[in-house]
Amino acid sequence: MEQDFHEIYDQDLQYKGTWTQALIQNAAFPILIPLFFIFPKPKQNLETNNTRFLSLRLFFLYLSLGVLVAAHSKLFALGKLVSNYGIFMLISATQLIFTAILTAIINRFKFTRWIIISILLTIVIYVLSIPDFGGQPHEGEEYGYNIQAWLAFSATIAFSLSLCLIQLGFEKLLVKTKRYGNKKVFRMVLEMQICVSFVASIICLVGLFASGEYKELKGDSKRFKKGEAYYVLSLVGLALSWQVWAVGLIGLVLYVSGLFGDIVHMCASPLVALFVVLAFDFMDDVFSWTRIGALLGTTLALGSYFYTLHKRNKKKMSELN
After folding, report:
1. Interhelix angle for 289-320 vs 258-280, to 10°?
2. CA–CA gap between residue 248 and residue 256 (Å, rounded)
3. How far apart are CA 62 and CA 169, in angstroms?
4. For this UniProt entry, which segments traverse the membrane (predicted)?
């Protein structure tokens, strides 16, 4: 399948819709609010009597993470829109390296040889699963590729930093202070996602109206081939999908680590490629040997990390006995 996203070089056209895409990634958080109240709240057993100070620290945590997530959403949408797709995906593959470095600094994560093997395998399979299209830069675009590369790098760093800060927030503010009792509970994940997405959505809304991009929404819906109703449904479906993805990712951060969440996130690429080919019967999209290798590598990458988790749990159990 050959596709060139840059047949017509129009800088103004390239930037349209990025605030909308960023908003879609965060705006569906209200669907999580009923779940937050449905899940039982464990009895608090706070280690500190200064609940006001704890609330203040949580406020600044959610505010900073909301700004970071909004920045990542905007930069991700902008980088994906204006960059050569192949280059953008190659730069995105470095995301796991940034996550590993930041989690070692911020979370004091201890690496084992099996985790390092898992990281290396994940980066390789992510690169192998990149589709063989993306086009070549035209003369008018070559100058802008440096900016586009920096946009992609900035998006990956923002994502990696957000994972590490979410893990730090769980460890230092929600788990260590026993705000939800003595156990890790799913309600922590919902609180984190609702609060962070609320801040990010406000920032994206301000950007949407300040940039004047909201004026284009009506025109975009009318140009949608299947009609305005399907346009709205597609936006709603995308927004809901982003929330499901985010809740799953944050859950992995809470119960395992930010690094593991990023590994699973990147290992999903070959699985998604296989699903697209099978579910939508894309006869012209060949599931090549490189993608088959990436699929096998996914099993090895996750298996290496799970082996480390098994060894750590076994060691903990032996210490308790």
Report:
1. 140
2. 12
3. 9
4. 22-39, 59-79, 85-106, 111-129, 149-168, 189-210, 230-256, 263-280, 286-307
What is the Cα–Cα distance from 72 to 65, expressed in whole angstroms?
Answer: 10
CA-CA distance, 158 to 72, in Å (whole number)?
5
Structure tokens at 220: 């975009």
Q: How many CA atoms lie within 13 A of 200 on its CB side?
A: 30
The residue count for the chain: 321
Give the separation between CA 230 and CA 237, rounded to whole angstroms: 10
DSSP per residue over 149-206, as a string? HHHHHHHHHHHHHHHHHHHHHIIIIIITTTTTTTS--HHHHHHHHHHHHHHHHHHHHH
Angle, CA 281 vertex, CA 278 and CA 285 arms, to 5°: 90
- By the 8 A CB rule, do 220 and 39 touch? no
Q: How does pLDDT run across 223-278, given as a tens digit for each residue? A: 777 788 888 899 999 999 999 999 999 999 999 999 999 999 999 877 776 676 66
Within the chain, strands assigned E span: none
Using CA atoms, how far apart are residues 223 and 137, in angstroms rounded to an integer?
27
**Structure-block tokens of residue 133:** 């299209």
Give per-residue pLDDT as tens, 36-79: 999 887 777 666 556 788 889 999 999 999 999 999 999 988 88
Q: Where are the domains positioned within the chain?
A: 18-36+50-131+143-310
pTM of the model: 0.86
